[in-house]
């Protein structure tokens, strides 16, 4: 059984970060991140949150907006009102009613993104 994620950081509305963001367990973004976000854990982009750039995380939940390139190792969930306007690589994608995905989606047949594909 997975242990619950520990909140490493919270970026509230009205705050902007430009550059590289790395974290260990869980980051909630309700503000604005411009740049790259990397972690083996979970990124949660809340209502009003905006992430622009490159995102490479283990899990991603979006109720705000993500623009750019998105690589998710486990699962991407777009909640109602959430928007992902990006080129996406993920083995699992859930778009709830009212969520928006616009862009190219690459799915890895349930394999982790770093697993080499076997020839058929």
UniProtKB/TrEMBL annotation:
It comes from the Bacteria. InterPro entries: BacA/B. It holds the Pfam family Bactofilin. Belongs to the bactofilin family. This is Polymer-forming cytoskeletal protein.
């Amino acid at each position: 059984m997975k242990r619950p994620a520990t909140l490493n950081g919270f970026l509230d509305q009205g705050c902007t970060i430009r550059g590289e963001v790395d974290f260990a367990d869980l980051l909630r973004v309700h503000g604005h991140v411009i740049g790259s976000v990397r972690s083996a854990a979970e990124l949660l982009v809340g209502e009003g949150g905006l992430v622009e750039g490159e995102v490479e995380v283990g899990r991603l939940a979006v109720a705000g907006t993500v623009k750019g390139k998105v690589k998710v190792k486990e699962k991407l969930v777009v909640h109602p009102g959430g928007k992902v306007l990006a080129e996406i690589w993920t083995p699992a994608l859930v778009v709830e009613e009212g969520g928006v995905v616009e862009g190219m989606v690459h799915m890895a047949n349930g394999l982790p993104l770093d697993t080499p594909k076997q020839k058929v």
